[in-house]
């Protein structure tokens, strides 16, 4: 007989990660189908970090045969693999990591797949491109995947350097996992809360009506609200608005303490700066409300946009307030007072949720859709995170490379010779080198000892050409950092170091998990990592 | 197939240059073969490290497999160290790997043994072992790469004696304990009920009840003497019920006792409920008819169970545990059980008991999933963070091997969207640190005979010319000017043995004379010298401490202030607080020790005490 509540073996295996992204995130992973282009060390390590937490499926496209060098850098190839198709061998060893994951491979180049069957790309939910892929191929991938909304991660890992470019058109997130979702409504208490303040805290200053114990256990939220009432009565009904007024308010609180060790008053004083803010809709949320997808819903609108619209309408009818998340922080208080206070916030949150759910239902009906098709739990999650939701509108690779390059983002860091933008330029030059029409075999710079100097020269030239094209003024002094980066890149001769590839695999897989689960905020859009200084930098390019 | 290693190492040789040789010649020790350890071992092997020792006392569990990729299902219950070695050696036949399925604190891993390594990597999951390895590496003067992860966060720190901060130069968060009365009589949060179920009820029924759990704080006992007496009596009664284990009425007896009789007694103590809602006892009689038949056969892990469901799981898990005890008795082995978050029977029992108690006290019930986290101190763990952290460890090891420790960095990783890694330069040692203080002395003595008095009078005062104001710490304070209880005690009775470390702190008021801490390493020498049970060391100079003495505010002892008092003398005037803390963590290997916070914030995110990688 099965024991009630007994977790399945799968739940047990994934226990430690379910605590980060929950059942919803896990389900998103388990329905993902990931394409890895080229089973490089960095690519294989990325897949490893996705196979372990249990993605649904993966496919590797690669036409290379396993070499001796592969064995020194790629953990997922062994002695018996030499000479065999790299896609197949990596697939086999990766599958061993997790029997729940299904692995496939295509022993061919991505160029051939794009030529013969570009529709194939629609099978995938996420694509990772690694290894030496020429610019034209990357742009073809971009032109197919970007309009489809399939995220593409372009990963370059050479020597001590790696970069990861996230190409995604639109990425809405609700569960961004902020440190806290507490909204105490101190500046605009709802009637039930005000009533509780009157009941419990109005005689806060009267020693004849309260014992020391009661005074020292008055929840700080009530202390703040009662003191605010007093403050407002002498400040034209306005709460403290600037830093000096807030400090004045803190002194007022301190003067109300009956003895020096009243922790609840200390908590109240500590809460002034973080919680005394005029209510406003955060800019990220406002951007969602103003997005065209929110203002003009269609029959195809996703639940994100329908709920966003409902919350927008809710806030318009509620004086610009978002639905109350309902969370209450820990505080010093008698248990029963704390529970009463908690219930007041919870009930208000439930009431707000009910209104938003109704709006969602009628919006769906107006669109001619099933008014029940969005579950209340999904609306609830959104309501709790309304002030923390985020929308990334990404940029395609063709925008970065051709249509609207962000010269400013590059030029502004150029004068700092330690900035990681120099590695970006070095890796762009590397890409240009392997994409050169005369380099049909896509040989990496520095691959042969005899051509190191010539290759270095070529890479430097690619950089100056790129900067010229972007109309960025440059000089040998400005390019000191770039020259150094190029030196490192050529020295690696197109080879990966296992340790850096492994680290890159961690970073890239982490970003992929964020994107697939739509939880946490991914690094948008280009991460550059330098192993020598153990630094990362994120550029929006 | 025979092949030269040239092809395999080609890229590593090119990129690493001269460093490649030092890596091949390095002899490294990796302590811990869990989440970070698996990644690290793979990286070390594929980077070409010549000789790697692996020590881990743990065995493989199903919940490791989402990240500890050197292990598969077929390895469950086997030694992590041995399996990790076996799997990793397949990937580089040139690497020389040695594995020990053992505790790093075992005496054979002594200072001499640590001295044989070029570099040590900590890939541990608990504070106690971390601090031990830190101490050993300082004594052996071997560089240590310390690392830890929790969820998406991680950090790497390079520790080198007298050059950088050591692991103990900064304060680590001290695990939370609860007043006995809060747990036993006046719970107000789910965690209180969970601690009660796990550390009291479970142990009284199935465990070694005399081993009282460390999460009980007895500092307020004197204020509540009468209640403490009642609680003792309750525990006695429960012991008698334990004797009926295996009989049909066992579940009913336990239930009636802890959820009815004890509660009824409590609720009658009117004084206690003046400002709190009194508890409401549950009745076995009224819940019993609702058993099995009326319930769905499976209700989820993440759902909050109803009262009836909790009742059902309570009875059922009690049966399962009783049966296990009976089976154990049959084998003649120890018939005691201990709580393990991954042991379904024990977790079910704790979850259901905690929820029944919450119900009684009007506290929100929790899902089994959440109770598991709270009861087991589970730290979220994933492959990605471990991969990044292990990679960073190796990068920092490169700096150490290249003798460029000044270029090494403290590295933090976080999940935030605008930056991945942050680094800061390594800090210099905290002059007031009790562990890495720069003066060192090896004291050879017969630990069964030598008394603390002899160390103080002969060695410290006569030879080293210390004044009267000194304090000596061995995990906790064992001597200061006002605390002379241990003077006649032998080292052995104080728990000081071969390989132990003592810290001598100079407490003299004169800033110009106060010397840095002295670390005394104990070396056992049977019989000592003729006429005395120790070898008198030669005099040497101990430098004056240039740093300002720490202010009292920055001293922390078990969450309470101390001005150098013994931790054995507990502070009894701490107010009983009803404060709720979501992050109340419990720990079973708490070592109270006062430590000083180096200027500024605490920089270690300590990833907890159980289960981080």
UniProtKB/TrEMBL annotation, chain A:
One of its GO terms (cellular component) is cytoplasm. The keyword Ligase does not apply. SUPFAM superfamilies: Activating enzymes of the ubiquitin-like proteins (SSF69572). Gene3D superfamilies: NAD(P)-binding Rossmann-like Domain. Pathway: Protein modification; protein neddylation. Regulatory subunit of the dimeric UBA3-ULA1 E1 enzyme. PANTHER family: NEDD8-ACTIVATING ENZYME E1 REGULATORY SUBUNIT, UBIQUITIN-ACTIVATING ENZYME E1. This is NEDD8-activating enzyme E1 regulatory subunit. It comes from Orbilia javanica.
UniProtKB/TrEMBL annotation, chain B:
Residues 551-597 are annotated as: Disordered. Keywords: ATP-binding, Ligase, Metal-binding, Nucleotide-binding, Nucleus, Transferase, Ubl conjugation pathway, Zinc. InterPro entries: ThiF/MoeB/HesA (IPR045886), ThiF_NAD_FAD-bd (IPR000594), UAE_UbL_dom (IPR028077), Ub-E1_IAD_1 (IPR042449), Ub_act_enz_dom_a_sf (IPR023318), Uba2 (IPR030661), UBA_E1_SCCH (IPR019572), Ubiquitin-activating_enz (IPR035985). The keyword Nucleotide-binding applies. Residues 21-434 form the THIF-type NAD/FAD binding fold domain. The active site is at 181 (glycyl thioester intermediate). GO terms for cellular component: cytoplasm; SUMO activating enzyme complex. Its main location: nucleus. Transmembrane segments: none annotated. Residues 563-574 have a biased composition (Polar residues). Residues 575-584 have a biased composition (Basic and acidic residues). Zn(2+) binds at residues 166, 169, 433, 436. It is found in: Nucleus. Residues 187-267 form the Ubiquitin-activating enzyme SCCH domain. Heterodimer. Belongs to the ubiquitin-activating E1 family. This is Ubiquitin-activating enzyme E1-like. It comes from Orbilia javanica. The lineage of its organism: Eukaryota, Fungi, Dikarya, Ascomycota, Pezizomycotina.
